[in-house]
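worker-03 picked up job from queue 'complexes'. Input manifest follows; two sequence lines, order preserved.
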Amino acid sequence: MALTDKDITTLEKKAQEIRETIIQMLVAAGSGHTAGPLGMADMFAAFYFHILVQDPKNPQWEERDRLILSNGHTIPVRYAAMAHAGYFPVKECLTLRKFGSRLQGHPERLRLPGLETTSGPLGEGLSQAAGIAYALRMDDGGTKSAGLRTSATSRRVYVVMGDGEQDEGNVWEAVMFAGKYALSNITAVIDRNNIQIDGMTEDVMPLESLRAKYEAFNWHVIEVNGNDIRAFITAVDEAKTIYEKPTLIIAHTIPGKGVPDIEFDYHWHGKPPTKEEGKRFLKEIRTMGGKVPNEYA
Amino acid sequence: MLNPSAKLSDKIFSDALEKKPTRDGFGKGTVEAGKADPRVVVLCADLSESTRAEWFEKEFPERFIEAGISEQNMAALAAGLAAAGKIPFIASYAAFNPGRNYEQIRTTIVLNRQPVKVCGMHAGVSVGPDGATHQMLEDIGMMRMLPGMTVVNPADAEEARKAVVASVAMDTPIYLRFARSATPVFTTPQTPFTIGKALTLWEGKKPQVALLATGPMAYRALLAARALAAENIETIVLNIHTIKPLDSEAVISAAKRTSRVLTIEEHQVAGGFGSAVAECLSAEYPVPMRMLGIQDSFGQSGEPDELLEHYGLGVSHIARAARALLSV
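worker-03 finished. Artifact:
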């Protein structure tokens, strides 16, 4: 289904709504991560409003696609996207990180229907995605020794990882496993925003060349601008055509995207905006950094 | 005297009593479980022969998953398989599973409540010549601390088979502990087995000491009870295969009847089985207690029996500790 310009505009609008909700929930929580979720808002708008085969009213639907969030600290973006997609009321987002909330600081599957896993400790999402993908292939057909998806599973497994997360050894165990068994029903996404808590990824622990590394492990790799919704969806579509191996999309994003004040600044990895900053950030999001009039003002 | 309702082997004190490692029970049990339920899958981290995972692999090659030497990946993979409706067993040496992959087990399996069966092989000093790196003595402690985790340490290969088969029906995670060296198979297919239920092996008329043992130590406790009976010291011997949830009713009842409790385990006493019994009794029915086990040290190379003697887990050590308790 070709995406019209109008479709893209609608998705971009969803991404802005997700960003607004992220700021509001982080201000209300008083703690949490800001830069990553803002940078990932475009891909999550794409996932929840275009890509995923899902039913927000029936989160356990057997035929759904699975979306695993491996870097669990970026969960505000997923909560916001899920709420706007109808999994739960948007106002519940303001309970983030509060006592008794279903929206735990790091996501817990048992507390909120629609999360596929419990995550936060890094490096484990791809392994779980591989387990799910392997099981789906056992059920849907295909032989493991040939590696090829001889009888294609329609259910796909998406897994979003951070770039700093690639420091974890467990990631590479899973990369090897998915490569060996040619789990082509997996599409992994790395949010390549180049920041982690202690600084820039290439200073803390250099990751490059990520593409060459994954290719060497028998993965198909696509690089896109992760803040370009059309480009991201095109990459996801391309992954569906690759039957021989799993696909990695390296989604280059701007940390803090949408709030020019904090874009690219790693100091915003792990802290929330204050109430005052929140007001200013919301205005920046709504006016796209002054480029458009603030319709809410 | 032996508890007749335990239906123990009729060769129990004979030299003809068969010896097998509890890991054989894992191999046999997974094959049995695999036949009964097509959702059962077995994962291994490059140790399929010694863990006996290859017994399952031979029967069900399409349901055997070789993860390579990656225990962390294997644990989280299994969480994913379980999330998609499979019933996974993950097998490697206990030193690595759960030794290496504790956090993956904690987050992706236990907190995430996926019904994965974590199978720790070659546990205890009785793995022998491999030495301290491979002699896992902290696994029971690590696993029983996890909220909602079940911990089972079978006494012999037959009980291990039953434990594996019984675990399939559980919709919560479980840790199963197995040993490398061959030990007496003193239970029979008719011996009752229920996860969470202790089994009385021996019961004196007016018991003065309760010997609470877990794993293959249960047989040694029985031999000690027999020796003590010859000295007119009456005991109760409980095989406590399920360390969590502990059969507190059976433990308290044994304490009430004897007023003296001795625990026996091939594991660190700190945080292990004896600690679990102490947690129960100190709150419910405090009595003088002693714990036999590894006393805050690592193992070393040697033959299994030689090592168990060295670390104070011989039959004579059990009997001596029971006698000493009488004067408390």
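worker-03 released lock.
The interface with chain A takes residues 41, 62-63, 65, 67-68, 70, 72-73, 75-86, 88, 103-104, 107-108, 111-113 of chain B (CB under 8 Å).
Residues 19-184 of chain B form a domain with the Rossmann fold fold (CATH 3.40.50.970).
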